[in-house]
Amino acid sequence: MAYAATLRYIIISSTTIYNRCGLCELTRYVNVDEKNGAELFYYFIESEDDPRRDPLLLWLTGGDHCTVFSGLAFEIGPVKFIREPYNGSVPRLKYNPYSWTKAANIIFVDSPVGAGFSFSQDTKGYAVGDVSSSLQLKIFLYKWFEGHPDFLANPFYVGGDSYGGKIVPYLVQKITEDIEAQVRPALNLKGYLVGNPVTGESIDTDSRVPYAHGFGIISDQLYEATLEHCKGESYSNPTNMICDQLLKRVHELLGECSKPHILYKKCFYVSPGQNDESPRRIILKKEIGGLKRPPPRPPMDCQNYVNYLSYFWANSMATRDALGIKKGSKDEWVRCHDGDLPYSKDIKSSIKYHRNVTLKGYRALVYRPG
Fold this sequence. Notes:
Layout lengths: L2 H8 L16 E7 L4 E8 L10 E5 L8 H7 L3 E3 L11 E3 L9 E5 L9 E2 L7 E2 H18 L8 E6 L2 H17 L8 E7 L7 H4 L1 H7 L5 H11 L10 H14 L24 H10 L16 H10 L2 H7 L19 E2 L6 H9 L3 E5 L3
Helix pairs in contact: 3-4, 4-12, 7-8
């Protein structure tokens, strides 16, 4: 299948959906919990170069319970939104010439159950956590490869960022254990990659202080005073008053920056909250009618304006028809659920899984997105 034709499947303009029926080949569900009817939704984008030889990458996003569409449309995928005022029509997508799909096949999965278009018929299926959702991803992979045996020989990698970076090494370890036990089908696992990954360790928060100093957000004097009075303590749990006051000042200064990227304009976070009934949202509800949790509208020059557009794109019936979304499976799509779905953070630290996998000789890349 030509890459240009594949890409047309997922580009939706304000008036036309290209190759409507063919899109179903690229977006599907996989049942990962027969008892509760839990299904993970995925987007599969073939490599632009040589799909039968290029690496295959399973991609997970942050969260928990954030849609992988963020990775597809805002980060590494082949499409991105056209930044234009929302006028009530379906927001438009365009080709991203810097997509990782220029050199790799990528499976973008909405995980855990409840994220994006993934759903459960029984509400009990939403009660998952780090371990159970990782094991469901393993079920997903084996079922996917059974349906796509032509890709079994491709070099296989698992990747993710932010909170997804906590799940990746655990999932990879489980795959290596299956490989050693000669479980079939045998996956051609080569390694994994994680961007800005959560580990569960105190370094996740403690590193913010030297980071802020290194990028000039806090002064040399404030940084040195913090080192002196906190004396190696966890910055997330100071035990003396001076350290506590210094860290409050550090966080005040960090709060003046855009947390996702310090060089961007600071804008409010575009994701609906569980109980957010701000005047801005109440007005927007009146504008769009039946949708329940529309995000607040940021200025167009904010980097996260495209997050705002994604809400209307994904909740359009035209989009849902094109993607093959099951009727009644998802009342309303949101980019992140922000704590309104149950989730157990039962992997306290991912460090040992990094160690175990790399000692087995698998390749690893840990990076900070630019």
